[in-house]
Design a protein that fits this description.
It is a single chain. The protein is of the alpha/beta class. The protein has one domain (2-140). The chain has 3 helices and 8 strands. The longest helix is centred in the last third of the chain and has 10 residues, at 106-115. 24% of the residues are buried.
Length: 144
């Protein structure tokens, strides 16, 4: 399994650059760009940001699946994955209550899904997959 997993010291986003990642030890609720109010002891770590498309091109990688849980930064990550979404399945944990701090909203995600002809299917029993926290898989929209 070790030859199939690589830890990369970078965040994913909608453009290459850098961001302050606010972390509190090993707590999984770190945030990029602004501290999570639930982590009053968080400290900023300057972190490289890469788009998934750039990472894929650099590595000549063609993953079959990507699974992401990035605490509200998922819309930025998806924006940086335009070519990747053409042939890669993505399972994503959606955090609608956290989108405001990242500068995103439901309409942003709806626009992306419409543009890329993707349908979000709930994996955690959500009745409103884009309005409730939970996991979803982004499936190609059915042809009419």
């Amino acid at each position: 399994m070790q030859d199939r997993v690589e830890v990369v010291a970078a965040a994913v986003g909608d453009e290459n650059g850098q961001v302050d990642l606010y972390v509190d030890s090993a707590n999984g609720m770190a945030r990029a760009g602004t501290p999570n109010p639930l982590l009053p002891g968080a400290v900023a770590i300057r972190t490289p940001v890469v788009t998934l498309d750039a990472f894929r091109a650099e590595r000549s990688a063609s993953p079959a699946w990507i699974v992401m849980d990035i605490e509200g930064w998922e819309i930025a990550a998806l924006r940086g994955a335009r070519t990747l979404l053409a042939d890669t399945r993505i399972a994503v944990e959606l955090h609608p209550s956290a989108w405001a701090w990242s500068g995103h909203n439901r309409a942003d995600l709806e626009q992306l899904l419409d543009e890329w002809r993707l349908t979000p299917l709930p994996l955690a029993g959500q009745h409103d997959v884009l309005g409730q926290h939970g996991q979803a898989v982004l499936e190609p929209a059915a042809s009419v």
